[in-house]
Design brief:
Chain A has helices at about 50-65, 130-145, 160-170, 175-185; strands at about 10-20, 20-30, 40, 45, 70-75, 90-95, 110-115, 190-195, 205-210. The first copy, chain A, is an alpha+beta fold. The structure holds a DNA duplex. Chains A, B: InterPro entries: NUDIX_hydrolase-like_dom_sf, NUDIX_hydrolase_dom, WH-like_DNA-bd_sf, WH_DNA-bd_sf, WHD_NrtR.
DNA sequence: CCTCTTAGTGTATTTATTACACTAACCTGT
DNA sequence: ACAGGTTAGTGTAATAAATACACTAAGAGG
């Protein structure tokens, strides 16, 4: 069977990381064409022989050099005018990485690549501003009822690190004692036995997530 | 700009209704081709000049004669082998209707059309079984924190009607007094002043939703 | 007027959430 | 060695939310 003319199918990937106390997303600056100078999500067309998930994984690796991270489908954007160059539909995904995973490919096709604070986005191409805002909301709500924070932290971390991730993404401060109580109660983490010394203060116990795959948990 | 070959873009719409105490979905029986005899969701290709939402609305009207109902994007399914006739990506939507809205178009292209209990699905074409199951889960979870039940009930209804919709979709019974307490507390509904008499028992007060557009409310 | 059926109502118990302030451990500088 | 600075770590009381539970009310029909 041969299908008639149809919009192009692309995927765009929101790669989130918490860096220096800010929720950041990896953006690429477009080097030519009508969107020259604007920033965009890493993305690309879906090939005939790959699933949507596979396309997103490929883009993640090609554009950000990232493998084995958390990835989930976000939403599909299909406004007629979302790309002035032609009709396309974009299946947006979001990925979570911690600083360690990041190893961006640099090519001269792009004018730039870098982490941008989601609260201070630069001028963006296509409908990508909307996509980022949508993704931030989804991320915040998933944080409350799943363990996906594991994907944003290194294998070992302190409870203060963990709390800070929650605070940055939710955009509000949390009570230290109540936070710790809840985290322990739902058995989100376990002690690793070692400590971290960071200077002129009391050393902190290090923890690891008890599960390193997505699980539903009532965290907050 | 001209895009290279890309999967076809379709939308499929899950049309839910609660009928005779069962959560049902409107399905069409395919009349020819490799999926002949199998049941499928109403769907079709997205046209070049319409957004995804518009395509879903068009299908809703063309296939089910339904207008002005609740509609929301569900998920996009894009496995390579989801349609044996060729590579396609399907943006699934779900719609909520009450019995009144239903006025299906009958065409001889289809071998049949009808409401099917989501707990007893017939043999389904494509990946549509997966799509329905995904949609049922989403619907159940949205019921708990939004007022979308309004779209499944007529303008006036009793609190028992409402509770029954919740019970059918959640798949468990709810305590009558606690349910009513919560519903009133969050001001989900208001009395209309009239009553419904249904035979040999006490008449029930009729209620209407205080909001007839999607709103976030902590119902349960 | 008795029986059947569905509608409608309140309270006590348990559980979860919130608010809140001090001590512990370590480093540094004197 | 000890004082000052900094982050880690801990418990309890008050409030709010969720749950469990059983009887009376209103109508129809015989």
């Amino acid at each position: 069977m041969h299908f008639p003319k149809s919009p192009a199918v692309a995927t765009d990937v929101l790669i989130f990381s918490v860096l220096e106390g800010k929720l950041c997303v990896l953006l690429i600056q477009i080097g030519s064409g009508p969107y020259k100078g604007k920033w965009a999500l890493p993305g690309g067309l879906v090939e005939m022989k790959e699933t949507l998930d596979e396309a997103a994984l490929r883009i993640l690796e090609e554009k950000a050099g990232v493998r084995g991270v958390y990835l989930e489908q976000l939403y599909t954007f299909g406004d007629v005018d979302r790309d002035v160059r032609g009709r396309s539909v974009s299946v947006a995904y979001f990925a979570l990485v911690n600083g360690d995973h990041y190893n961006p490919r640099t090519t001269d096709y792009y004018a730039g690549i870098g982490w941008k604070d989601v609260r201070r986005l630069p001028a963006m191409a296509f409908d990508h501003k909307k996509v980022v805002e949508f993704g931030v909301k989804r991320l915040a709500s998933k944080l409350a009822y799943s363990n996906i924070a594991y994907a944003l932290l290194p294998r070992e971390f302190t409870l203060s690190d963990l709390q800070s991730v929650y605070e940055v993404i939710l955009g509000r401060t949390l009570d230290k004692r109540n936070f710790r109580k809840k985290i322990q109660e739902v058995k989100l983490v376990k002690e690793t036995g070692s400590m971290r010394r960071t200077g002129a203060n009391r050393p902190a116990k290090l923890y690891a997530f008890s599960q390193s795959r997505p699980t539903l948990v009532d965290v907050l």
